[in-house]
């Protein structure tokens, strides 16, 4: 609402005198009243409920019309506060400018007031004058303390020229008479031009003042600077015995930097040089000194100039892989293909294409040789191997580095790996990439996306170093146990190579060729001093270890070596022979006796085959029927997928019973008027209830258990099976076939039923030892499964 709409002008208002300065709308300012004249004017305003007219005095303490200016501001009283010393404080808000046109009363001062309004100005001319004014204000703000950033922003954004003039005049605090001349001037063009001239004069005055001040300081500095510096240097050298350690360090830093200059990116060179110059200037006792020095030394430790220049040779890679690893034919073949492509591109001088930029991820159970494969690659390429354990990593700064503003900041693990390797192109193993965590500290997988993406990792920025690192020359190899736990975006960057479980035969050969010779060397034993026959080694594999890999087997062999070393020294014998008879003297009692099959067939008990992240397992599924109403109970810590499999299996068995394909003994039929499956409650249980179980491969196993209890036919104890089922009874393919069949082989299973599609697709990957040691039968329909499984 405008001021004209509140009061009819000219208007009769009490007059309050301000001693110090002119007020401008829409200012809110406190006014202190300590004289009777102003107090009377205030009381009159409050009594009449009217606004108040505040006019500045000319002399500083005048209280009559002849001693005050005939202009001021019209406003209202927002608050009135009596003070202990007898004064009154009011909070006054100015609304508009006004002029006295008629004097009415002297005690208290009262006058008739009319509004002062600026004359309108052409928009084009107004914008031009405002642009010039704002430009000069910015110059003045740089050399004087008048204008705060908020005030400058207000002047830039405000479009009302009158308000801008009032803001500036109130800020620079000019003389009262000059302020009065601006106050009563209504020609906006003249006011803006006059204000611009005033600002120019202020700029010149402040510039001269600043120059004089600088000259005075410069003269003092020039006279005293050399004396103080020399005196300080003399005293320091006196105390430290002419210590020039810092100077020597700085020279060494510059020398190292120049050696690396041609291998560094320009922004890296500038950042390190800037920090060395800062270290050179800063005082030794400054709290930042050690932080800057640590940064410089870390940055100069990055091996920009050290590159392994050995040319790729696929023959050497293949030789090293075969020398260090038994079996693992498919993983070794894929690694050889990877380096064959890189070698061909290098020989033909072709820039890296997608084939050479693939990130390999080796996945499989623990102890099958994922990290050792990467180690063999590093040996063949004559490069350093750096292992970065990602298990449980949840702080994104662990990979990218901490910003130097934090206490205890340090570079990320990638940068630390390069410094440790002393090469800019080592082999980096990202171990357990499937066990990354995510928390409020960030998502490390997002940083890995940049590290592993060939399109981005040439400019990887470490927050601690504050410049880009080129990771495109690094060979990254990831390892994982379960790839389903890796975020999908990260999986998209990698190619997966599966390392399956070892068969007992493969473990035997690995132990003979690699583990035993390696452990003998570690324990200082000669081959002639230690004898372990083949049957005893097979016994250790079957009865003392249960694993997909060979890690525990290595520990057991190491235990044999330790005890043998002790026996050689204490008993002074020349040779230690370990066989089945004295094995218990060297190893503890058997930790695992393979669960052999029951000697007889049972109703409702079926051998299923399951995959786990640590290898395959034989999963026994049990089912019983109890008089009831056709309810299905599931126990054994089953996941959602297995629960759905059980429900599907129950529905398929119901259909087969209705179709007469499963014959029900008469003794089971309690009521001829209802279906037999509605007369019993079914309980399906998978033992070892503390272990979670899930996965789409138990469909035919559960179906066979249900068919067994309804038909009262026992299930063959030497048959195991794996496969999912649909509502039509078709057997669907599954994964992890090799691990499952290895587990069946270890448990002396004679016959394994597997989906026909897996038989056609995956049988070639099954070791001959397994295929020759058991009968593997492909099945397409549940009816075939029941034909082979039921007695």
Description:
With 791 residues, the chain is an alpha/beta fold. The chain has six domains: 3-115, LON domain-like (Archaeosine Trna-guanine Transglycosylase, Chain: A, domain 4, Roll); 120-243; 245-301, no CATH class; 314-498, 3-Layer(aba) Sandwich (Rossmann fold); 504-586, Helicase, Ruva Protein, domain 3 (Orthogonal Bundle), CATH 1.10.8; 605-789, Ribosomal Protein S5, domain 2 (2-Layer Sandwich), CATH 3.30.230.10. It has 27 helices and 24 strands. It has a seven-stranded mixed beta sheet with strand order 18-19-17-16-20-23-24. A five-stranded mixed β-barrel has the order 1-3-4-5-6. Strands 8-9-12-7-13 form a five-stranded parallel beta sheet, with helices on both faces. Helix 8 (245-260) packs antiparallel against helix 9 and helix 18 packs across helix 20. The model has no long low-confidence stretch (mean pLDDT 84). One of its GO terms (molecular function) is ATP hydrolysis activity.
State the name of the first-level CATH class of the largest domain.
Answer: Alpha Beta
- According to CATH, the homologous superfamily of the largest domain is P-loop containing nucleotide triphosphate hydrolases
Number of domains: 6
- Tertiary shape: elongated
Unreliable spans are none
Query: Span between N and C termini?
Result: 99 Å
For the biggest sheet, the summary is: 7 strands, mixed
Q: How many alpha or pi helices?
A: 27
Structural class call reads alpha/beta
CATH topology category name of the largest domain: Rossmann fold
* CATH A-level architecture of the largest domain: 3-Layer(aba) Sandwich
The number of E-state strands comes to 24
Name the strands of the widest sheet in spatial order. 18-19-17-16-20-23-24
Into which percent range does the helicity of residues fall?
Answer: 40-55%
Protein name: Lon protease
InterPro entries: AAA+_ATPase, ATPase_AAA_core, Lon_bac/euk-typ, Lon_lid, Lon_proteolytic, Lon_Prtase, Lon_prtase_N, Lon_prtase_N_sf
Subunit structure: Homohexamer. Organized in a ring with a central cavity.
Catalytic activity: Hydrolysis of proteins in presence of ATP
């Amino acid at each position: 609402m405008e001021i004209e709409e509140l009061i009819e002008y000219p208007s009769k208002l009490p007059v309050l005198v301000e001693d110090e300065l002119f007020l401008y709308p829409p200012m809110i300012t406190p006014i202190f009243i300590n004289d009777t004249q102003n107090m009377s004017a205030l009381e009159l305003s409050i009594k009449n409920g009217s606004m108040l007219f505040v006019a500045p005095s000319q002399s500083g303490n005048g209280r009559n019309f002849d001693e005050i200016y005939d202009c001021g501001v019209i406003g209202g009283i927002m608050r009135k506060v009596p003070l202990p010393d007898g004064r009154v404080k009011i909070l006054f808000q100015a609304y508009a400018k006004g002029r006295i046109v008629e004097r009415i009363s002297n005690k208290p001062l009262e006058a008739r007031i009319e509004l002062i309004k600026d004359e309108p100005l052409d928009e084009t001319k107004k914008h031009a004058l405002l642009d010039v004014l704002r430009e000069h204000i910015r110059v003045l703000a740089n050399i004087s303390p008048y204008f705060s950033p908020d005030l400058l922003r207000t002047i830039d954004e405000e479009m009302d020229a009158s308000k801008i003039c009032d803001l500036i005049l109130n800020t620079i605090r000019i003389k009262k008479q000059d302020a009065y001349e601006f106050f009563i001037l209504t020609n906006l063009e003249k006011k803006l031009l006059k204000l611009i001239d005033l600002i120019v004069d202020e700029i010149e005055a402040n510039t001269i003042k600043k120059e004089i001040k600088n000259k005075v300081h410069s003269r003092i500095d020039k006279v005293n600077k050399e004396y103080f510096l020399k005196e300080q240097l003399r005293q320091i050298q006196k105390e430290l015995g002419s210590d020039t350690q810092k100077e020597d360090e700085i020279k060494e830093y510059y020398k190292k930097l120049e050696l690396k200059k041609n291998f560094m990116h320009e922004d890296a060179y500038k950042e390190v040089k800037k920090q060395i110059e800062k270290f050179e200037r800063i005082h030794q006792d400054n709290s930042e000194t050690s932080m800057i020095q640590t940064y410089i030394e870390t940055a100069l430790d990055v091996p920009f100039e050290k590159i392994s220049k050995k040319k790729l040779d696929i023959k050497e890679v293949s030789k090293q892989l075969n020398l260090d690893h038994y079996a693992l034919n498919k993983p070794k073949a894929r690694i050889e293909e990877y380096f064959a492509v890189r070698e061909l591109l290098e020989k033909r001088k072709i820039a890296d294409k997608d084939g050479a930029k693939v990130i390999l991820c080796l996945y499989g159970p623990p102890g099958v040789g994922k990290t050792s494969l990467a180690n063999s690659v590093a040996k063949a390429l004559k490069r350093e191997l750096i292992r970065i354990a990602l298990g449980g990593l949840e702080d994104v700064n662990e990979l990218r580095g901490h910003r130097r503003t934090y206490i205890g900041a340090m570079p990320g693990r990638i940068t630390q790996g390069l410094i440790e390797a002393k090469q800019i192109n080592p082999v980096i193993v990202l171990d357990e990439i499937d066990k990354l965590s995510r928390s409020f500290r960030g998502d490390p997988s997002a940083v890995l996306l940049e590290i592993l993406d060939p399109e981005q990792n040439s400019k990887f920025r470490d927050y601690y170093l504050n410049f880009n690192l080129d990771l495109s020359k690094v060979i990254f190899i990831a390892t994982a146990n379960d790839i389903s736990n890796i975020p999908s975006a990260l999986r998209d960057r990698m190619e997966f190579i599966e390392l399956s479980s070892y068969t007992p035969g493969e473990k035997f050969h690995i132990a003979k060729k690699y583990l035993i010779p390696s452990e003998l060397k570690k324990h200082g034993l000669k081959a002639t001093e230690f004898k372990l026959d083949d049957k005893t080694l097979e016994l250790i594999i079957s009865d003392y270890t249960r694993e997909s890999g060979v890690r525990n087997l290595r520990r057991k062999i190491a235990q044999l070596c330790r005890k043998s070393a002790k026996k050689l020294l204490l008993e002074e014998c020349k040779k230690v022979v370990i066989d089945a008879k004295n094995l218990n003297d060297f190893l503890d009692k058997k930790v695992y006796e393979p669960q052999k099959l029951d000697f007889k067939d049972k109703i409702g008990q079926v051998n299923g085959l399951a995959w786990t992240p640590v290898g395959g397992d034989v999963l026994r599924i049990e089912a019983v029927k109890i008089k009831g109403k056709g309810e299905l109970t599931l126990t054994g810590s089953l996941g959602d997928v297995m629960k759905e499999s059980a429900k599907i299996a129950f529905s398929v068995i119901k259909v087969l019973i209705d179709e007469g394909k499963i014959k029900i003994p008469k003794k089971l039929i309690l009521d001829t008027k209802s279906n037999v499956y509605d007369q019993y409650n079914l309980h399906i249980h998978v033992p070892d209830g503390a272990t979670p179980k899930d996965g789409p491969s138990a469909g035919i196993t559960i179906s066979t258990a249900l068919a067994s209890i309804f038909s009262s036919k026992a299930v063959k104890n030497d048959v195991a099976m794996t496969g999912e089922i649909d509502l039509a009874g078709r057997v669907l393919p599954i994964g992890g076939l090799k691990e499952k069949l290895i587990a069946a082989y270890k448990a002396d299973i004679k016959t394994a039923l597997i989906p026909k599609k897996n038989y056609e697709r995956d049988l070639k990957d099954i070791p001959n030892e397994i295929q020759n040691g058991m009968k593997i039968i492909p099945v397409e329909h549940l009816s075939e499964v029941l034909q082979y499984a039921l007695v």
